[in-house]
UniProtKB/TrEMBL annotation:
<keyword id="KW-0411">Iron-sulfur</keyword>
<dbReference type="InterPro" id="IPR003698">
    <property type="entry name" value="Lipoyl_synth"/>
</dbReference>
<dbReference type="GO" id="GO:0005739">
    <property type="term" value="C:mitochondrion"/>
</dbReference>
<dbReference type="InterPro" id="IPR031691">
    <property type="entry name" value="LIAS_N"/>
</dbReference>
<dbReference type="InterPro" id="IPR058240">
    <property type="entry name" value="rSAM_sf"/>
</dbReference>
<keyword id="KW-0408">Iron</keyword>
<dbReference type="GO" id="GO:0016992">
    <property type="term" value="F:lipoate synthase activity"/>
</dbReference>
<protein>
    <recommendedName>
        <fullName>Lipoyl synthase N-terminal domain-containing protein</fullName>
    </recommendedName>
</protein>
<keyword id="KW-0479">Metal-binding</keyword>
<keyword id="KW-0004">4Fe-4S</keyword>
<feature type="domain" description="Lipoyl synthase N-terminal">
    <location>
        <begin position="13"/>
        <end position="51"/>
    </location>
</feature>
<dbReference type="GO" id="GO:0051539">
    <property type="term" value="F:4 iron, 4 sulfur cluster binding"/>
</dbReference>
<dbReference type="Pfam" id="PF16881">
    <property type="entry name" value="LIAS_N"/>
</dbReference>
Length: 104
């Protein structure tokens, strides 16, 4: 399922001040972890929730893996993860998750 967000055009009054902005660091650890997640066909809370801190955590080789697919049973108002009843249709997911955790 695709997610589309429409953001209002930035004006001077609603822009973040320079002191609040950070430089996104996508170093080697981030790239390797992203590759592990892609290659293992894993779902992470980091990506599904559109977490703004994903770069910091993944650079430290830390990720929160979702099991039973990309659907969560909770409906937190601050989170972008799809809500519903998970359907487990991937018996190899636990093995792939364990391999990724071992590599981290």
């Amino acid at each position: 399922m695709s997610r589309f967000f429409i953001r209002p055009k930035a004006t001077i009054s609603n822009r973040k001040p320079d002191w609040l902005k950070i430089q996104v660091r996508t170093g080697q650890n981030y790239k390797e972890l992203k590759g592990m997640v892609r290659d293992g066909n894993l779902n992470t809370v980091c990506e599904e929730a559109l977490c703004p801190n994903i770069y910091e955590c993944w650079e430290r080789r830390s990720a929160t893996v979702m099991i039973l697919g990309d659907v969560c049973t909770r409906s937190c108002s601050f989170c972008s993860v799809m809500t519903g009843k998970p359907v487990w249709d991937d018996p190899d997911e636990p093995h792939r998750t364990a391999l990724a955790v071992k590599q981290m």
